[in-house]
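Readers of this paper often ask what the protein records in our data store actually look like. Below, we set out a record of this kind in full and without editing:
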Amino acid sequence: MDAGLAGLLGGIIGAAVGAIGAVGSAAVAGRKAEKQAHIQSQTQLRQLRMQINADILLQQHSPRQEAYASFLAQARKVGESKANIYLALHSAYIDRHSHPTEEIVERIHGPLDELTSKLNSLTEIRSTVNVLGPDSIDSETSRLYRVACEIVKEILEYSHKVNIAIMENSTFPDPEDTFTRDANLDRALLEASSGFLDAVRPILDIGATRI
């Protein structure tokens, strides 16, 4: 091979090697850029998800706060009904002979109808709370609702005894056992209310990033 041909081939080979090297470098740079773009897109996606979650939490905050507060307040209203109803029952029994029967019946059924209305309202609010969620408060929500139902059951059973005593002109039912159970129910209502409040407090933290 003469010197001219060798120089030509050397130039061609050198150019080819240089081209291959350039292509290789471009490929490496391309893969690096692609990887960086993927990382950037994933970061942006995570940020977008966090922002969406934060926006949803902000939108849900007011409805949840209102529902939670209403549910707690209504449960306490059910518990606070006992004293007035027991007083009405005792007054009706005392006046059973000196007042018209219709008035006595109204004294008994009026407060009981109001109590039933309060429990119905509590049931409706509970449904709203269940819809708004989250699932993490279901247990405490059910616990508070059960205690309220137990209170209503206790009142209805006691009022039934008083009603029989009025109709049959028999002895007024001994309130001792009822008062003991009432004290237990009052304590249960307080504990359930505190448990519900503890469960919903973190949910109302606007800074939370999870639903």
